[in-house]
Every structure is written in C-alpha cells, then in structure tokens.
C-alpha cells in the first residue's frame, strides 16, 4: 500500500534552545537581496502545497525594507513579494514583470491535508474532491501556459523540500542568481524549521487563525496521524481517468 501522506512526528523538548518569532525573523537579515528581471514575485498555488514556507523565505530575502512588517494579507500592490491562491487577484499585475513561484503537491495528499484542517461537516465530500482536483489541475495548467508565453515561472514541488529548508534556499538561489549569506541561511533554517514554527503558532488553536505577517496558521503543521474517511477513497475512484493521467505527467498518482 502506498504511503499517501508524509507524517511529521513532533517531540517537543524543553531543551529547544532558541525560539525565533516567525513574524520578526526577517528583521535580522543581513541584507535585502537583489531581484533582477522582475518587479514582483508571486507565490501562486492551490492550498496546502507549501506556499507559506516559500513565501516567508522569499519575503525574508527580497521584500523592501519599508514593507517587511506589512501583513501577509490582504493582497496589495505595494509589496515586492506576494502570495495568493486567487486567479482574480493576480490579474492586477498583468502588465508588470512578475515572477511566479508555483508550489505544487500531489493533489491526493494536499486534499487529505486540507480535510485535516478544514471543517467539512455538512458539505459534500464528492464535491470537495472533484472541485479540489480541478483546482490543482488549474494551477499546473497555469504553469504550462506561463512557459508557453515565456513568462518567468518556476514549479516548486512540495515533496522535494518539505523536510529540507536548506534545499529550498539553494533552489531559490539558483532561480534568482543570488548567493545567500551563510548567517541568513542558518537564520532561515532555524526560524522556519517545523519545531520553531510550531512554537510560533502554539496559541492558535484553529486553522482560521494565523500569524499576521508570516501567515502561518494554527494547526499548520501536522503533529499526529490523520486518515481520511473511507468515503474519500470511494469518491476518488470515481474520478475521470483523464484528470488522473494529467497529474501523472508531473509524477503524481491518485492512488491509496
């Protein structure tokens, strides 16, 4: 049986040495890094794909000094680094030089993760799965379209950086042709480590509450096993094979 959901087991330790506030971490950066050939970076994705982690790293590295302490939302034109799940929001930048960073994840695991944090009581599970898969497909198609029209865009696969913040930093370095100072690398690794983020959100009991600047939600990180109901798998089996074939192009398979 395929292991359908990566599990992160947390053992809190009273010896966890240095708590770093995720809403102030960027104030300790050594410098603002140069952003070439783009006016803005937009982290654009479906939910539960690692977009918040990537957004915070990019915010740390590239955001203008005067906007570092701006709330992560609402989506406003004044910031250099933005994050959105909305196709409507990004339309305001159609005439600007935008670099899209599109985080993706196996839709199966992303939907299970969304089930874990969202209240679906009274809602149709069939509707949730069907619309969710179409939404994930839409972001991948957006990436393909950006490539066709030679708009700068990069695909960032959740599975490749979920447990390796430094690997994500190195990917960002390669994409934007920068070299991150070693002190900044260590600060990002410590500050956005899962243990530290958990400490930063421990007083947020529900997913609808979040840190104002970083955007990390309550229950953002999984600390215990979660299994979807059997109905979830039954609904998934009924999905059209065409959409399953589409996801397989990216190495994603909708299997239990």
Written overview of the protein:
The protein has helices spanning 51-62, 107-117, 125-148, 158-161, 165-176, 182-191, 194-200, 230-237, 241-248; strands at 40-44, 81-84, 98-104, 153-157. β1 (40-44), α1 (51-62) and β2 form a beta-alpha-beta unit. It has a four-stranded parallel beta sheet with strand order 2-1-3-4, with helices on both faces. With 256 residues, it is an alpha/beta fold. It has nine helices and four strands; from the N terminus they run βαββααβαααααα. α3 (125-148) crosses α8. The chain has a single domain, classed as Rossmann fold (3-Layer(aba) Sandwich). Helix content is 38%, strand content 8%.
Outline of this structure?
By secondary structure, the chain is α/β, with parallel strands linked by helices. Helix content is 38%, strand content 8%. The longest helix is centred in the middle third of the chain and has 24 residues, at 125-148.
Topology:
Elements: E1 40-44, H1 51-62, E2 81-84, E3 98-104, H2 107-117, H3 125-148, E4 153-157, H4 158-161, H5 165-176, H6 182-191, H7 194-200, H8 230-237, H9 241-248
Parallel strand pairs: 1-2, 1-3, 3-4
Helix pairs in contact: 3-8
């Amino acid at each position: 049986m395929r292991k359908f959901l990566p599990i992160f087991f947390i053992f809190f330790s009273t010896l966890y040495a240095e708590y770093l506030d995720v809403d102030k971490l960027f104030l300790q950066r050594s410098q603002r890094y140069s952003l070439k050939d783009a006016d803005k970076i937009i982290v654009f994705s479906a939910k539960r794909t690692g977009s918040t982690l990537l957004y915070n790293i990019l915010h740390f590295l590239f955001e203008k000094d005067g906007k570092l302490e701006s709330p992560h939302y609402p989506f406003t034109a004044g910031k250099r680094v933005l994050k959105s799940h909305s196709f409507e929001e990004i339309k305001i930048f159609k005439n600007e030089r935008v670099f899209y960073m599109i985080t993706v994840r196996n839709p199966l695991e992303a939907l299970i993760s969304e089930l874990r944090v969202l209240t679906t009581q009274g809602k149709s599970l069939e509707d949730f799965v069907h619309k969710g898969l179409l939404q994930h497909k839409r972001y991948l198609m957006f990436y393909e379209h950006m490539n066709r029209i030679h708009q700068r865009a990069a695909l960032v696969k959740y599975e490749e950086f979920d447990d390796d913040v430094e690997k994500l930093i190195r990917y960002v370095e390669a994409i934007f042709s920068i070299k991150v100072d070693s002190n900044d690398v260590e600060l990002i690794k410590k500050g956005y480590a899962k243990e530290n983020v958990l400490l930063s959100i421990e007083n947020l009991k529900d997913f609808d509450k979040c840190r104002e600047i970083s955007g990390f939600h309550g229950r953002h990180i999984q600390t215990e096993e979660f299994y979807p109901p059997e109905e979830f798998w039954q609904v998934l089996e009924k999905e059209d094979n065409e959409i399953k074939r589409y996801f397989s192009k990216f190495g994603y398979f909708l299997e239990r």
